[in-house]
UniProtKB/TrEMBL annotation:
<dbReference type="GO" id="GO:0004807">
    <property type="term" value="F:triose-phosphate isomerase activity"/>
</dbReference>
<feature type="binding site">
    <location>
        <begin position="9"/>
        <end position="11"/>
    </location>
    <ligand>
        <name>substrate</name>
    </ligand>
</feature>
<keyword id="KW-0963">Cytoplasm</keyword>
<dbReference type="GO" id="GO:0005829">
    <property type="term" value="C:cytosol"/>
</dbReference>
<comment type="pathway">
    <text>Carbohydrate biosynthesis; gluconeogenesis.</text>
</comment>
<dbReference type="GO" id="GO:0019563">
    <property type="term" value="P:glycerol catabolic process"/>
</dbReference>
<feature type="active site" description="Electrophile">
    <location>
        <position position="94"/>
    </location>
</feature>
<dbReference type="GO" id="GO:0006094">
    <property type="term" value="P:gluconeogenesis"/>
</dbReference>
<comment type="subunit">
    <text>Homodimer.</text>
</comment>
<dbReference type="InterPro" id="IPR000652">
    <property type="entry name" value="Triosephosphate_isomerase"/>
</dbReference>
<dbReference type="InterPro" id="IPR035990">
    <property type="entry name" value="TIM_sf"/>
</dbReference>
<keyword id="KW-0324">Glycolysis</keyword>
<comment type="similarity">
    <text>Belongs to the triosephosphate isomerase family.</text>
</comment>
<dbReference type="Pfam" id="PF00121">
    <property type="entry name" value="TIM"/>
</dbReference>
<keyword id="KW-0312">Gluconeogenesis</keyword>
<feature type="binding site">
    <location>
        <position position="172"/>
    </location>
    <ligand>
        <name>substrate</name>
    </ligand>
</feature>
<feature type="active site" description="Proton acceptor">
    <location>
        <position position="166"/>
    </location>
</feature>
Length: 248
């Protein structure tokens, strides 16, 4: 039985005062909803998360990491630095990183490997654009994105990743995938995982991301292969984020 997991992706939002209000609002409302929860925050706020969340049920993580351990890589953040500030998760290959920073499938795979080696749980993001969906390429695209990661992992490491299916056309657009569209993609991804390691495929949490809100979360999370959500906009308001966790 897979536990549900809800992760907020703050993207490049927040400031210290607003973060304190948001984090304390979430923590105050967290109950035994039967789901794990986390926030992935801009790197400068990891210390704030560590100071304000340690000992609570809300975990935290980064939004990206470097493939390098240390050295002359200006602007990059190493996996060990994320660990140093208590991070549990790190997003790998979010579509905004792929689009605006030209992250290739191979680079994303390397990031997942580096994250695992540092003791972080990589949240590997895959998803097709609208043009790719309309051209009937959804499965080819998400399979290639996932396969690059699977090729880079040992079979026994597969169970230690989290996968997020985030159709690019649904991110920040208010257009949510229907539960059936999302379920079909999740089932397909689970079958791809099974080709590498069948036991691990049954254990990996596959999150849906793309305009998930309290109003549509219940129906999405009721699908057999949807194990939670990766939440952008709705993660910036405590009541919305809690509403999604509660929908589990
Ligand atoms: C995201 O950025 O990962 C995301 C799912 O955003 P939103 O919920 O705003 O669509």
């Amino acid at each position: 039985m897979r536990r549900k997991l809800v992760i907020g992706n703050w993207k490049m939002n927040g400031n210290r005062a607003a973060n304190t209000a948001l984090l304390s609002g979430i923590v105050a409302g967290l109950n035994d909803f039967g789901a794990d929860s986390a926030v992935c925050v801009p790197a400068p706020y990891l210390a704030q998360c560590q100071a304000e969340l340690e000992g609570t049920a809300l975990a935290w993580g980064g939004q990206d990491l470097s493939v390098h351990a240390s050295g002359a890589y200006t602007g990059e953040v190493a996996a060990a630095m994320l660990r140093d500030f208590g991070a549990t998760y790190v997003l790998c290959g979010h579509s905004e990183r792929r689009a605006y920073h030209q992250e290739s499938n191979a680079l994303v795979a390397q990031k997942a490997v580096v994250a695992l080696a540092a003791g972080l749980t990589p949240v590997v993001c895959v998803g097709e654009s609208l043009a790719q969906r309309e051209a009937g390429q959804t499965e080819d695209v998400i399979c290639a994105q996932l396969q690059a990661v699977l090729d880079a992992l040992q079979a026994e490491q597969v169970a230690r990743i989290v996968l997020a299916y985030e159709p690019v056309w649904a991110i920040g657009t208010g257009k949510t995938a229907t539960p059936q569209i999302a379920q079909d993609a999740h089932r397909f991804l689970r079958n791809c995982l099974a080709n590498k390691n069948a036991a691990a495929a049954a254990a990996v949490q596959i999150l849906y991301g793309g305009s998930m809100k309290p109003e549509n979360a219940k129906e999405l999370m009721a699908q057999p292969d949807i194990d939670g959500g990766l939440i952008g906009g709705a993660a910036l308001k405590a009541t919305d984020f809690l509403g999604i966790i509660q929908a589990v």
